[in-house]
Structure formats: structure tokens, C-alpha cells
Amino acid sequence: HALAQTGIESARIMTTKPPLSYAGAPWVVEQGIDLGAIRESTVIFSGNALEAARAFPANVNVAATLSLAGAGPEKTLVEIRADPAAKGNCHEITVKGGTSTITAKVENVPDPANPKSSLLAAQSILVCLRRLTDTVVAG
Q1: Please, which of 57, 71, 101, 122 could form a disulfide with 8 given CB 3.0 to 4.6 Å?
Q2: Which regions of the chain are under pLDDT 50?
């Protein structure tokens, strides 16, 4: 939030997941990507957050959140990688502003019931709902 006050120049997120996590995504279907044939880390999409949300609606909630919190969906760059060696879902984020550069790497265990997302996603929803009724909110 503080960096947004000084002006965000760029926001970028690289999301890496096991290939089959992207099964059924509109982009994968449209492009005819054979996820089972991917043998090494491969960029399967590059674009902005708005395009990524259309292409991978079940996979890019972190990119969508980043875009809404900062530079906006058209100015947030998204790279999506399929990596058969990935043990989970990884997001590498870089946000640059007039006063700072913030980098973060988040590695999540996939949700066994929905490998397109992580177990942390459900916990985020619970925290949000609890905050609606909390009398004191930190952060």
C-alpha cells in the first residue's frame, strides 16, 4: 500500500506450477498445449493480468490480487510457467516504484482437492471473513 502512494512503475509476477495444474485452462485448450509432453520448465503464457485472467481463470488469483493492489490489470505483467519438477505452486513477484523495489517469492503446497490452487487460498478467505466481524484489525 505504501509503495502505491509513491507511484508504482511496474509490477511483474511469474507463476510456476506443475503442468497438469493448468489442465482445462482456456489458453491451454486454445493453443493446443500438450501439458503431458512438457519435460522442462516452459513459459506457456506471457501477457498482462487481464489477459492472464481470461486465459487461466482458475490459476491466477495471485496475479489478479497483485494487479488490483498496485499498477492495475493492464500494467501488471504475468508470466506463467509449467514445470514438471515443481513440487508446488510458486509465485515470484517484483514491484518497482519511485522509492523502492519489492521482491517476494511464495511457494505453496497445492490443494489436493484442487491442484490449480493452494491450501493457503482457502485460509485467506477465512481470514477475510473473520476480519469482517473483528472489532480490532491489525494490518
Answers
A1: 71
A2: none
